[in-house]
Amino acid sequence: MFSGFPEAGFIFLQSLLENNNREWFEAHKDEYIKYLKTPATEFIQALGEKLKTISPAIQYDVRGSLMRIHRDTRFSKDKTPYKIEVTTMFWQGDGKKTELPCFGFRIHALEGAGLLGGVYQFTKPMLEAYRIAVLDDKQGAALIRAAEAVPSEYSLNGQTFKRVPRGYDAEHPRAEWLKYSGLFAISPHIPLATVKTAELVDACFEHCRKMSPIQQWLALNLLPELSQ
User: Fold this and answer.
1) Cα–Cα distance between 141 and 73 in angstroms, integer?
2) Are the C-beta atoms of residues 208 and 46 closer than 8 Å to each other?
3) Cβ 219 vs Cβ 213: under 8 Å
4) How far apart are CA 1 and CA 43, in angstroms?
5) Which letter does DSSP use for residue 188 in this model?
6) Are 88 and 104 in contact (CB under 8 A)?
7) Cys bridge to 93: 66, 161, 209, 223, which one at CB 3.0-4.6 A?
8) For the segment 143-167, what is each residue's pLDDT rounded down to a tens digit?
9) What are the counts of helices (DSSP H) followed by strands (DSSP E) for the chain?
10) Taking the chain, what is the end-to-end CA distance rounded to the nearest angstrom?
11) DSSP class of residue 66?
């Protein structure tokens, strides 16, 4: 049963920030497993079942929902081998989970704890489907309603283009939505006092429920298998 992330887990992340090398990690790997990986798997099980009340199609598994702490440094100038965060994901649809409409929970050594709901970065096929949906009268209107249904304390993100993409009508009533390369909501900061208790599961579920209009619009309008 999930009872919260212990204080020792936060101490581990802070220490990893200062000692981000393989020798230190291997010497303290048991602490990572005990204070972060084990409670994270319990958290995934507890929150995953609750998220299925938002949609039975939301998926998780105890192993696959916990993102690797090892960084992929092949194409990065930053060669530090480990992430200074613990991230869990709950996704909807078939394919690579990081490319699907999801809910993601993260504890970061510097930034604290929070949640994301939506798609951080559209794949090329999803971006094309998104733009078609924005321009469609029925789907576009549903997007506006979904955005308005998310409480104002949740920021909507993903607008990265300064101009409406070439080939699209800049005067279209939903032209601003064409400037997005991803679409996701970010929750307010989650106090660490909550993260350390079993109350975290209910707190995260409430955040996900409030962000779900955007996450569900993406799932129902951009995933072929759910739009039938």
Assistant:
1) 41
2) no
3) no
4) 8
5) P
6) yes
7) 223
8) 999 999 999 999 999 999 999 999 9
9) 8, 6
10) 38
11) B
